[in-house]
Amino acid sequence: MKPLGRWKDKPIGSVMIIYARKDYKVFEDVLEPRLKSEGIPYFLDVEQIKPGDEWLKKLENAYETSSCGIPILTPNSVKSPWVWFEIGVLHGKGKTILPFLYLVNLSEREKSKFINSLPEFITRFQYSTNPDEIIESAKEHIFIKKFTRLRISLELENVNEVVAQNLSFGCIIVRFGSFEIIRNEPFNTCLLYTSPSPRDLSTSR
User: Fold this and answer.
1) Which residues of 54-84 are buried (b: 16+ CB within 10 A; e: fewer)?
2) H and E: helices and strands count for the chain
3) What is the pLDDT of residues 47-70, one digit of tens each?
4) Residues 6+ apart with CB under 8 A from 176
5) Distance from C-alpha of 134 to C-alpha of 180, rounded to nearest angstrom
6) DSSP designation for 46
7) φ, ψ dihedrals at 97, nearest 5°
8) SS3 159
9) What is the pLDDT of residues 141-195, one digit of tens each?
10) What is the DSSP letter of 52?
11) Alpha-helix residue ranges (DSSP H) falling in 42-167
12) Rounded CA gap, 87 and 17, in Å?
């Protein structure tokens, strides 16, 4: 059988970073390297809003195009009305909230007191103090598996089915007649094959 293409990760949207200016170093030192390493697009106001930009329009666009938001919650940020405003806007637009609690300089007692003092609104969302967990969750909302490098030049009714086999997790079956997809999750790297082989099938790079 002839392989036709391969599944790839493609970003959809971006992550909106919600923070207090006093906590910029937390983003720079802890989250930014991880976001860049994973190729995750993000919106950070001090980087994306330039002199002369209409900052409100930039923010409104970020609220619309973000797939999720990461609020950096610290003793500084919880005092900022703007932080809570942005969390509320994203949540109101149906975006996923991934609270990142950065409490490295607090004692266990202080951490417990801080967590217990958080508004009920934010405690609805599962938080994490582990930046790697936050990034992994963000990846689930930012990336989709997209089939690329496939171009079919034939009469579709001559193809009974197309099978994409995932060696680790199973397979999907695409029936061109109804375009029905049966799939097992999660997808990793998949090769797509035809059965029976069509007369004219080509692969584009």
Assistant:
1) eeeeebeebbeebbbbbbbbbbbbbebeebb
2) 8, 13
3) 999 999 999 999 999 999 999 999
4) 156, 157, 159, 160, 161, 162
5) 34
6) H
7) -105, 125
8) coil
9) 887 544 433 333 333 344 444 444 333 333 444 444 433 333 443 333 333 433 3
10) T
11) 45-48, 55-65, 81-92, 108-117, 120-123, 131-142
12) 10
Helix axes 81-92, 55-65, angle to 10 degrees: 50
Place of tokens 């405003």: 85
For residue 106, the 8-state DSSP code is S
Q: How high is the pLDDT of residue 29?
A: 96
Question: Quick one: DSSP state of residue 31?
Answer: I
Give Cβ neighbours of residue 80 (< 8 Å, ≥ 6 apart): 20
